[in-house]
Amino acid sequence: MLTNLRETIEYLAGQRDEPGPWLARTPRWISGSIVWLLAMALIYCFCGQSTQFTYINF
Predict the structure, then answer these.
(1) N or C: which end of the chain has fewer CB within 10 A?
(2) What Rg value do the Cα atoms of the chain yield, rounded?
(3) Is residue 11 in a domain?
(4) Does the residue 57 lie in any domain?
(5) What SS3 class is residue 56?
(6) What is the overall mean pLDDT for the chain?
(7) What domain count does the chain have?
(8) 54 or 8: which carries more pLDDT confidence?
(9) What is the pLDDT of residue 52?
(10) Is residue 58 part of a domain?
(11) Measured between alpha carbons, how far is 51 from 45 in angstroms, rounded to an integer?
(12) In this predicted structure, what is the pLDDT of residue 46?
């Protein structure tokens, strides 16, 4: 299972030319949607507006 996960992550990172076993079995639009959803979630988590940190300008 960890080997399949590693191969899938290596494909998404651009290190492999052939998709991992998990992406090979799913339709391309579903795997593409999952990748973009994860990207948007990471952007939202690190954008600064989702945190409760208060910025003070002097």
Answers:
(1) C
(2) 17
(3) yes
(4) no
(5) coil
(6) 77
(7) 1
(8) 8
(9) 63
(10) no
(11) 8
(12) 76
3-class secondary structure, 19: coil
pTM of the model: 0.45
For residue 54 the two structure tokens come to: 């208060």
Which pLDDT belongs to residue 48?
65
d(CA 48, CA 4): 34
Give dist(CA 28, CA 38) in Å, integer.
16
Q: Distance between CA atoms of 24 and 31, rounded to whole angstroms? A: 9
Tokens of 58: 């002097």
Q: Residue 41: give the domain boundaries.
A: 2-46
**Does 33 fall in a domain?**
yes
Q: Can you tell me which residue has the tokens 């651009």?
A: 14
Identify the DSSP state of 14: T
Arithmetic mean of pLDDT, 21-44: 80
